Amino acid sequence: MAERARKRPCGSLTMAKRLQAQRLDGIDYSPRVEFVQLASEEADVVNLGQGFPDFSPPEFAVEAFQHAVSGDFMLNQYTKAFGYPPLTKILANFFGKLLGQEIDPLKNVLVTVGAYGALFTAFQALVDEGDEVIIIEPFFDCYEPMTLMAGGRPVFVSLKPSPTQKGEPDSSSNWQLDPTELASKFTSRTKAFILNTPNNPLGKVFSKEELELVASLCQQHDVVCISDEVYQWMVFDGFQHISIASLPGMWERTLTIGSAGKTFSVTGWKVGWVLGPDSLMKHLRTVHQNSIYHCATQGQAAVAQSFEREQLHFGRPSSYFVQLPQYIQRCRDHMIQSLQSMGFRPVIPQGSYFLITDISDFKNKMPDLPGAAGEPYDRRFVKWMIKNKGLVAVPVSIFFSLPHQKFFDHYIRFCFVKVKDSPGEGRAPQASSDLLGRGVGLICVGAG
Ligand SMILES: Cc1ncc(COP(=O)(O)O)c(C=O)c1O
To answer: Where is the Aminotransferase class I/classII large domain (predicted)?
Structure first.
């Protein structure tokens, strides 16, 4: 029997019936997956594409995980379906203070498999056939397929850069929504608005005025706001992260999504959460109890303990939420300098792990890079850079809807948390020397 099983040809099941569910139509190809794959196929590349830090997490988080694994044996077992009670309790307490809300750990908190899980649960719970979902471009690329999988219709509105003074570097805060255009996107079919602040890939931190505009439109048109705030602690230059749920009248219609992966530099733990009013959360619980049901207990215990530690240090120099942004701001500045010295024109981000950089000069010098017919320039450029310079970035056009990609094909995204030491250790970030080495080659080719 085992012998026969081994000899059976693998792959290729064909059926008289349609095999894949219709909800997968048009979303099977993911450019991000393609670029991650491309990077992994090449030996000796510097991967500044993917969004995770390559420094160690804070010691207290690692110890909390070790403690969770080697301590109470019951942490090897299932816990409460909607979240390990000490975690839902500390999340309620911690974020209740920030949002100015009385948060009930049982009714207003759901623990998910990363922020990805939170987003998926939210889309499945709230978006229906024919519902319109407004997405700000550039957008974290899963928002569009998640809308489509739920049967919704994505409606895009772009942040656009305002002109800068000659010689002045561009900044993510120069990228703004046109208020009239934004208002025109709301219709009687609009169900949800997706906000991401600080934004991936641009690093824009939405201002209070911008959030107030979104809030008033959501209220006027009776729309739910799904607010992805996974980079909320990574904010620079004195900018402030504001949760839209903290604005008057917004808690009732907002789901606030967070990620322990980004918060404590532990992206592999995949612990995320959603906070919101019970009237919305009860539908997310329905999806959760009929899909994932339950997230890994030990990771939740470690995140609970890490938040408890942070609550004690909150606002003090010893707080990781104070140290992390200071440290990665230095990483950002290092990378900006390196990129500028190579002939790139980075757009200075005020938040997140990422920055985008203008490659128009390269486009002018090397317009005919190989690629498929109609393939946006930034994708051809990144493929060329991986193959010839061993440097991986992500083309920014993938963060735009198809019709708008041609307008934004001259930017690429770098992740700047690629260093070998950790926040709080007082050493200078080291990544850009390697980047610079690769970049010198870039300038030569670009100039030639
Ligand atoms: C904007 C944004 N939201 C959500 C996620 C997913 O976070 P997690 O790793 O916790 O699933 C990411 C990850 O890169 C992200 O950039």
So the answer is: 44-416
Q: Is 229 in the pocket of ligand 1 (CB under 6 A)?
A: no
Summarised one tens digit per residue, pLDDT across range 129-170 is 999 999 999 999 999 999 999 999 999 999 999 988 887 889
Cα–Cα distance, 385 to 230 (Å, whole number) = 29
pTM of the model: 0.93
From CA 357, how far away is CA 55, in angstroms rounded? 23
Cα gap 225→238, rounded to integer Å: 26
Ligand 1 centre to CA of 51 (Å) is: 8
Cα separation, 344 vs 358, in Å, equals 6
Strand 132-137 to 109-113 pairing: unpaired
Answer whether 124 contacts ligand 1 (Cβ < 6 A). no
Dihedral angle sign, alpha carbons of residues 58, 229, 161, 207: negative
Domains in the chain and their CATH numbers? 24-57+318-444 (3.90.1150.10), 72-313 (3.40.640.10)
Number of H helices, E strands in the chain: 15, 15
Strand order in the sheet with 224-228: 109-113, 271-275, 254-259, 224-228, 190-196, 132-137, 153-158
- Residues in the chain predicted with pLDDT less than 70, given as ranges, are 1-10, 420-448
